[in-house]
Design a protein that fits this description.
Number of helices: 12
CATH topology of the largest domain: Adenylosuccinate Synthetase, Chain A, domain 3
Number of strands: 20
Helix content: 25-40%
Largest sheet: 10 strands, mixed
Shape: globular
CATH superfamily of the largest domain: Adenylosuccinate Synthetase, subunit A, domain 3
Bound molecules: inosinic acid
Strand order of the largest sheet: 9-7-5-2-10-1-11-15-19-20
């Protein structure tokens, strides 16, 4: 081995369903030995919960690894609402003091501007209730539109305040044209410039070159955790379009959203909830609108961290997970919230669909219109009806719980390396380490 090359592979944590799989807990768990934890896409549409003892931490933007005292990094692929980040930093004060020593924000990060992007999100959602996505209302779609349109304001622009008037004028050209069209008040450039000047006072010390920093960490033999947000089925290209978020959520995005080569993605750990949830509109073949769905919602506390919306709940769909394992090349899986299923006498697992009278065993086409016609094909397995809460050893699980996990593993073609049996940091069964 050449000197300076680390044996420690990086870990990329990806949600393999529609989000809310429990990525925050697994990021926290694996970041103990890491040197940096990096967000590489999404914004404050995400909601990550980490529970340590009596304390519940809820983040929208801050990488969860901050709780392990690691360098938290916000990559260029993230869309950043500075006001929201300030609130999170203030809420952490006392427990974890944030300084430029433990928080780095890429110059390339695009800025969500209150009064501009969330409002455009609302205008689009209001346009037609039949085609509304059911977004989080945080302005995610509009800021990514501005980024691709090449007129988003970037964090690095706050280092050159004199350049802002021209950039803000460019930003508002389209926003105000649309606003005039729907009889909304035009946005004044000076208000945005004033807001960005305020942001600069807080943000500038944290802004730096993320790609370079991550290069240096690896060169020194360090380990990086890449913390995904949302889930693979919400990926703008490969998810249930158009009922998706506006970023790429699969593992390949790590390279683009953090400025590292594909070889640095490392071990791809796919996070899979033991059942399925979805927030917002779009297909969901295994959705349960009966008392079992209600049981999952209650027992799993399935309410959105970001918006408080009740999550739609249903059986696990291994046809979905087999597809998303494939898309991200998941090297291993963490199954979360197994304990939520403790009370159920039997469990159904969707292994494929019938669509237009044809059997569809693998989900190659996840477009919403096509999948809305899908009828799930189920295998029914017996439940275990005894508590698995807090179990830390695989041998301690009831036989039927192990059979359920074995069945899932076989269907999705990736090994289960850990199982979470409760919301707390240490309520977890570690079967294998995420080592390549
Ligand atoms: P947006 O990301 O706010 O534009 O919302 C687009 C879709 O993604 C909506 O269905 C949201 O409910 C969903 N979504 C966005 N972020 C999350 C998340 O972190 N968890 C679950 N669903 C999400």
């Amino acid at each position: 081995m050449r000197k300076g090359i680390s044996m420690k592979n990086n870990i990329t944590i990806i949600g393999l369903q529609w989000g809310d799989e429990g990525k925050g807990k697994l990021t926290d768990f694996h970041s103990e030995k890491a040197d940096a934890v990096v967000r590489f896409q999404g914004g404050n549409n995400a909601g990550h919960t980490v529970i340590i003892g009596e304390k519940v931490y809820k983040f929208n933007l801050m990488p969860s690894g901050i709780l392990q005292g690691k360098l938290a990094v916000i990559g260029n692929g993230v869309v950043l609402n500075v006001s929201r980040l300030t609130e999170e930093i203030n809420a952490l004060k006392g427990d974890f003091d944030i300084s430029p020593k433990n928080l780095l924000i890429s110059e390339g990060t695009s800025l969500i501007i209150p009064g501009v992007h969330p409002e455009m999100d609302a205008i689009q959602e209001r346009a037609n209730s039949k085609t509304a996505v059911g977004t989080t209302g945080r302005g995610i779609g509009p800021i990514y539109m501005d980024k691709v349109g090449r007129f988003a304001i970037k964090a690095g622009d706050l280092l050159e305040l004199e350049s802002l008037p021209g950039k803000v004028e460019k930003l508002l050209f389209l926003h105000n044209a649309i606003r005039r069209g729907v009889n909304e008040k035009e946005i004044k450039a000076q208000d945005i410039i004033n807001y960005l000047n305020e942001c600069a006072q807080f943000l500038v010390p944290y802004i730096g070159n993320v790609s370079q920093k991550l290069y240096e960490i690896k060169k020194a033999g360090g380990q990086i955790i890449f913390e995904g947000a949302q889930g693979s089925m919400l990926d703008i290209d490969h998810g249930s379009f158009p009922m998706v978020t506006s970023s790429n959520t699969i593992a390949a995005q790590v390279s683009i959203g953090a400025g590292v080569p594909l070889s640095e993605i490392g071990f791809v750990l796919g996070i899979v909830k033991a059942y399925t949830t979805r927030v917002g509109n779009g297909f969901f073949p295994t959705e349960l609108t009966d008392e079992t769905g209600e049981y999952l919602r209650k027992s799993g506390a399935e309410f959105g961290v970001t918006t408080g919306r009740p999550r739609r709940c249903g059986w696990i769909d291994t046809a979905v997970v087999a597809r998303t394992v494939y898309l991200s090349g998941a090297n291993g899986l963490a199954i979360t919230k197994l304990d939520v299923l403790d009370g159920l006498p039997e469990l159904k697992v969707c292994t494929g669909y019938e669509i237009n009278n044809q059997k569809v065993p693998f989900l190659f086409n996840a477009k919403n219109e096509y999948m809305e016609k899908a009828i799930p094909v189920y295998t029914t397995l017996p439940g275990w009806q005894t508590s698995t809460k807090g179990i830390k050893n695989i041998k301690g699980l009831p036989t039927n719980a192990r059979k359920y996990l074995d069945f899932i593993e076989k269907q999705v073609n990736s090994p289960i390396i850990s199982v979470s049996t409760g919301p707390e940091r240490l309520e977890i069964i570690e079967i294998a380490k995420p080592v390549l």
